Amino acid sequence: MFNKILIANRGEIACRVIQTARKMGIASVAVYSDADRNARHVKLADEAVYIGPSASSESYLVVKKIINAALDTGAQAIHPGYGFLSENADLCRHCAANNLVFIGPPVDAILAMGSKSAAKKIMANADVPLVPGYHGEDQNPAVLKQAADSMGYPVLLKAAAGGGGKGMRAVYAEDEFDQALAAAKREAQTSFNDDLMLVEKYLQKPRHVEIQVFCDQHDNAVYLFERDCSLQRRHQKVIEEAPAPGLSEELRQRMGSAAIQAAKAINYQGAGTVEFLLDSSGAFFFMEMNTRLQVEHPVTEMITGQDLVEWQLRVANGETLPMRQDQLTIHGHAFEARIYAEDPDNDFLPSTGTLHQLRAPIESNHVRIDSGVVEGDEVSIFYDPMIAKLIVWDSDRARALKRLTDALSDFCINGVTSNIPFLYNLASTAAFRSGDVDTGFIEEHQDEIFHRRQEDLDYAAPLAAQAILAKRAERSKQLAEHSLEPSSPWHLTDNWRTTGIEQHSLAMLINDQPVQLKADTSVMPAGIKVVNNGEHHFSNSSDFNLFTPQGVFHCTEAQANLGLDEDNHSSGNLAAPMNGTVVTLLVEAGASVSKGQPLLVMEAMKMEHTIAAPTDGQVGEFFYQAGDLVDGGAELLIFVAADISAAL
Ligand code: MV4
Questions:
Q1: Lesser CB count within 10 Å: N end or C end of the chain?
Q2: Could you identify the atom of ligand 1 that is nearest to the CA of residue 203?
Q3: pTM higher than 0.70, yes or no?
Q4: What's the CATH number where 585 sits?
Q5: Are 617 and 631 contained in the same domain?
Q6: What pLDDT, in 10s, does the model give residues 518-539?
């Protein structure tokens, strides 16, 4: 076995490969760019080599730098991960030329699968089922149109050099064909510098079911069952699962055998994935073959109990496959959700920045987190903004799905916008729960997925109120413990509410929705009701995230009316009306004051503002001194209304 390998990648996959290498007693070499100088994979590796500027094109994608890093550190093999150079024939060739083992397939297999039309030709010869269509060299428009007419509309025009949904155009009727073909060829020429076209029967909302295959150098080949990756948005996978919901054992075996046939047709070695389109009738058709370990491989690991990176290392080292087909079984069900720093409410644009808070769910036999970052790291603009992969497992799909929604609710991220609420809403839809998933799912259910339901708000509001009350009680308790007067009411701990407040008027923004609540803490648990969700002037006195099973709610507490609510004579904590500076305190802490008596002067926007006593009462404590800068909405002092303090 290798003594040392180099991981030519970054982020979560680099960390994941390093972990298996360590488990096997193999030393690891990381490579890193400027932006990744302090990255997690650099810290986890035994050694690390700087390979240049942050832009991938000047670092992670430079074959010469990767090869030199391996040679300079005495690494015997290179693991390419996924993306970057993982399917790059040049890296494969340069490894061979430098007596380095490429942990992946032979270069001919990479080349064979690199072109969609070449791949389909190979698969046709291997009797692997293809979508009915034309994949020929003759690109005479009349030939292509004849093929379309004979298979019947709708048809799909696909650029042979395309991929990931790029260069596809549907044609619904014969009279649209010529114009559509001309447009598709122009686009392909522009995008791929190659306008070779395939024509296929257009399958309506198929499922994307892929088979994990593994082949060693001794002509052994197995499939490790399937993954359903139909849940995609703009051809990016969002949630993957294994096994595929509702797939019969008979269909699984037929797809697995077809995948093995595809692998053998190209003398495959290593980990590979054969992607199929599965239509509603149960017919399946070869789409493409990926000659690398996939992002979503963990769900296969969870249901088979196998470490696929360990398999890769053993196979690359010339060992036979660790298991035979008859030894592999499916146990339970697994999901993977890709946690991204992106904003679903802003067309999923990446949300770069600092991960001020990153608290992942606790890992267990049921919850696995593959992450390349830790709290405090930057999510940079240079690379894919994936924060982590959340993988869950349980004994059946329903239980695994509950694990998923619970874990998403426990995943706390602050500092960047994440797609967690989107993932949670998606996983919570009835259609997803029923396993009724195909490639059109997100499009079809987007109202339910993207729309923050009113009931979510009503659900969140009382929870947010409880959070505010708890925060206030905690703050008052802290103050009481440091208060000046031994006789001060703040010392009373006989369940007396430290601020003496029993009815609260709370106002807040919940996910930008104004909400007003009345809370009565004279009863336990606090009686809280949502009142008219009227408009309020909000000052962002304090923001907090409410992480709930319904997803994350961003809450901004504020005073609807400063300090007192007209229709009840409770006292309150007086808040600064806006950002400003405290000019002077006009009374001592602990002083008794009368309604309207000036308590404090602050300056804001070149004007002086006097904060006056909302009613007769007592100043509990000032939180600021003269000269202090104050954020709008910040609590300036604690004030206890006379009718409350009289009762003490
Ligand atoms: C198709 C298809 C329907 N009919 N081919 C999308 C990208 C590439 N992987 C192939 N794709 C498709 N090919 C025929 N003949 C529908 C898709 C497709 C799709 C496939 C898998 C996963 C998600 C998809 C989303 C949209 C379209």
A1: C
A2: 4
A3: yes
A4: 2.40.50.100
A5: yes
A6: 777 666 555 666 665 444 444 4
Site to substitute for ligand 1 among 116, 168, 169, 274, most atoms within 8 A of C-beta:
168
Q: Is 338 a catalytic residue?
A: no
Q: How far apart are CA 556 and CA 431, in angstroms?
A: 33
Q: Beta strand 4-7 with 27-33: parallel, antiparallel or unpaired?
A: parallel
The answer to whether residues 339 and 351 touch, using CB atoms and an 8 Å cutoff, is no
CA distance 212 to 294: 9
On the question of pLDDT at 270 being above 60, the answer is: yes
Location of structure tokens 């791949």: 119
Give the distance, in angstroms, between the CA of residue 115 and the centroid of all CA atoms in the same chain: 30
456-501 confidence digits (pLDDT tens) = 777 788 888 888 888 777 777 776 676 544 444 444 433 333 344 5
- Beta strands 197-201 and 155-163 are antiparallel
Residue 104 has pLDDT above 70, yes or no: yes
Q: Which domain holds residue 71?
A: 4-103
Element (H, E) at 166: strand 166-171
For residue 488, the model assigns a pLDDT of: 46
Ligand 1 interacting residues, C-beta cut-off 6 A: 131, 156, 164-165, 200-203, 206, 208, 232, 235, 277, 287, 439
User: For 203-236, b where at least 16 C-beta lie within 10 A, e where not — what string?
Assistant: beebbbbbbbbbbbbeeebbbbbbbbbbbbbeee
